[in-house]
Structures
1.
Amino acid sequence: MSNVAVIGSQWGDEGKGKIVDVLSREADVVVRFQGGHNAGHTLVIDGVTYKLHLLPSGIVRPGKLSIIGNGVVVDPAALLKEIETVKAQGVDINSDNLLVAENANLILPVHAFLDQEIEKARDSKGKLGTTGRGIGLCYEDKVARRGIRVCDLAHSDHLRARLENLLGHHNILLKGIGADPLSLDKVYDELMKSAEGLLEYVGVAWKRLDEAHKDGKKILFEGAQGHMLDVDHGTYPFVTSSNTVAAQAAAGSGVGSKMVGYVLGITKAYTTRVGTGPFPTEQENEAGQTLGERGHEFGTTTGRKRRCGWFDAVLVRQAVKTGGIDGIALTKLDVLDGFDELKICVGYELEGRRIDYYPASTVAQANVKPVYETISGWQETTMGARSWADLPAAAVKYVRHIEELIEAPVTLLSTSPDRDDTILMQDPFRAL
Ligand code: IMP
């Protein structure tokens, strides 16, 4: 029996929420290990829709422990608001089923303000399309060792000193953009007010995980964003500010890397991206429009329209290799129903040469031209299919061809937002 890490293998929004929810039936502990409330997971359970941003998906299931790990950046006001919203939907959230790592870094209002101002000041080519939640600014402070951590909230004098140090840095930036400097008293009071409710959930995450492991409990590591938004392996600088790969599950929650277990890459049957940056298979035409409409491609967190395009097997294969993905969960196959033909990107052309990988250089990434294979579509519906036998032959061929191209098996296939509309080929908890 192993643990499982669920990772997005494209640019996020691959449908991780549903898959995590399906797997959390079996898991005892669900852990978030990177990112913040820039993420958005939609769960549909018995017709009720839950929109989660920071809370691990296990929270909606009784008897599971949900952990927000040290690799996550936590906006206390956003977290408390989310807890209230989910509680109002009838979910019980308390210190027994939610734990926030004491060594996670806190997002302050100044991070979000500067994130938005800096993004506004970027010229159209340089805009990153951030979610404006202060994620990057908070990680910057973490790495620069001036960040405020959850555990600092318990020591008022220490917290004030830490905040003074942090404001010393940010007030220079604020002055530079013509904004008013922040007063220490105001920032301190605001933080204490929004953070008060947080303390009841704070604990030593790595210890709880170690205990759970020793007790033979199953742990599910829940990734946010996706491989191509990884700060090292993605389309830098058009990325988020954390490592989104499975290796981060260990560092971002305080477990050894061997404990991470089976790595399940969540992969949409086509490709989408929110925000700016290169996207070789983007279809700014009728096909892209159709994918967007059928797939309801609007961001959970910002409501932004997602850019849509054909499946890029080169990118997903790269995610499989550099992210250690053992198998994939293919989602939203039903969105492809009704196309006469489908295209799959199987390589790129760059400066007249054929290449089989996505280069790191921003210039090369902008200039690669996808090489497509065209394969037949299907007119039948795959929506709600619960076994291979329910799928049209052309859909099975599409899935099998993807497996070959990305060099990883399809472990799970999702055919609607409903968690029961899932074809499980192999149980990831028992796969290793
Ligand atoms: P940030 O994470 O808010 O700094 O945004 C950086 C980039 O990551 C932008 O292109 C965002 O649109 C993208 N991004 C952040 N979170 C998500 C997500 O959950 N899904 C898809 N894209 C995301």
2.
Amino acid sequence: MDERLSPDQLFSSLSQIETEFRSDVEGAADLAGLQQIKTKYTGKKGLLTARMKALSSITDPAQKKEFGKRLNEVKNIIEETIKGKELSLREGEKERRLLTEKIDVTLPGKSTQFGRRHPINQVLGEIKDIFVSMGFGIEDGPEVELDHYNFEALNIPKDHPARDMQDTFYVSDDVVLRTHTSPVQVRVMEKRQPPLKIIAPGKVYRCDADVSHTAMFHQVEGLMVDTGISFSDLKGVLELFIHSFFGKETPVRFRPSYFPFTEPSAEVDIGCVFCKGKGCRVCKTTGWLEVLGSGLVNPRVFEMAGYDPDKYSGFAFGMGVERMTMLKYAIDDIRLFYENDVRFLRQF
Ligand code: PHE
């Protein structure tokens, strides 16, 4: 259609385009709108682009030159105006964002509540670290255990009076909830040959409940077997452990005791952490607190596990994790660990 416009008409259509463009730009509200306007005039099928194509249809060279000049003028105006408008729109948008995204730094902060490990798990981790640093490996075993592993293979036959030491939950005649971690000793010896140097942490169960007993609690078992292991190895390892756990200045003593699966057996005491050995209610005025049971592995236990007792010797020990935690942090009631009162738990 441009083909048929006279040069005069072409000139005046340029002025129309310019006027229309100015009012369009005036009304552009945002960058997207401005982009549309840009396309409308200078795009491939834009109004100004069409006029540029019409340039070749002018035959008079003077008119052609004149029209070309005017075309350039309008093109520059359009480009410059769009650039300017774009700048001011960007400014405006930035200002609006600064206003709406303003942060009131005087508002009180929102604090994040961090969870933490349960004190029993923390202490368990500490105990494991100490033994791992001495070269012990970590083993575990089932909590629902055969009577055989919990008792028989530890030299505690059915009619043995030592069964009274532990109030057992029976699942059936030959299945129990393990009353201690000692059955792991037997399970490990059955599947591996000496030398052995392991600890076995885990849950144990006894039908008992008062300020120092819960039906479920945690123990850490220890077992070392090799040729030529003696009672002095047991003393050395346990003293090192107690000094790392309670501090170097803690007094330690070994007191003769009895367990069917160790011979000789010893109870390990530490100087009372409450009265520093002077004698108080907690240590029953003795100045000492019992912390773990131990002894040299009874040759009968080796025989039942298939080890030659003439060739191998070893020591074993077992401690209560709740008890260790209570002594370390001077807690006087074991039930606090399982009441889930966050005011208590947060202190660790
Ligand atoms: N299993 C014993 C208990 O629960 C502790 C113990 C373990 C004693 C290993 C000696 C050797 O009381």
